[in-house]
Amino acid sequence: MYQVVLVDDERLILRGLQTVVNWQDMNCIVAGTAYDGRTGLEMIRTLRPDIVITDIRMPNMDGLAMLAAIRSEFPEIQTAVLTAYRDFDYAREALTLGVFRYLLKPSNMDELKETIRLMVERLDRMPQETGEKENDPVDETVACAGNYLVRSALQYMREHCTEQHLSLSDVADHVYVSQWHLSKLLNRETGKSFFDLLGGMRVELAKKLLEDPAVRVHEVAEAAGYADVAHFSKSFKKLAGCTPGEYRRQVHPSGSVS
After folding, report:
1. Least CB-packed of 31, 141, 146, 257 within 10 Å?
2. pLDDT in the model for residue 225
């Protein structure tokens, strides 16, 4: 039987989904339920279900990032959205990220059952489809999901790159994937590691700060997210090809260097 995980912050909805749908007749069993997105994702990583039905408007959660994370990290899982959020662009983006159906609350029960039936049929065909598509390129929705996650991760890094202790784990948590998976996605999409990307962002910020001769080098280092000047100078030279002082002299050839 196919395992199903249900995620919704409305307990009444969860109870209804568990009792109104005859899961056994559909060759399914509800393996777990969660009341928020993060708990749901932890459950998905543990249980590796075949089907996930989830809301996307829950507290402290980016619904699209969660859907992208599921599609990118577990492309074999069939996902359907059941939500009261009636936004066409949002729904279109969700479908681009691999969601099988975008259902609106209150959902027609026949529509919900039909969605589950079709997901089960797709799962039934999967072994055969996998064999036929062995040499095919990565599924388009999986690629879209990975690209979405990388864009979200890079945006978060730009906003937090001045924090000295920003880590791959922090960014992975923000986009709902494992560190290993995010590292793989960043390398695939940008050709660079997390640390190279973070260092590049910090050095670009440092260059702007160095253009002001009134700001001392140690102040630039701190403002750019470095714990000490030595580490800052080493990283800056590696990425910019010159020391911070040399860069400042290039910008202000006749000025004083702090």
Report:
1. 257
2. 94
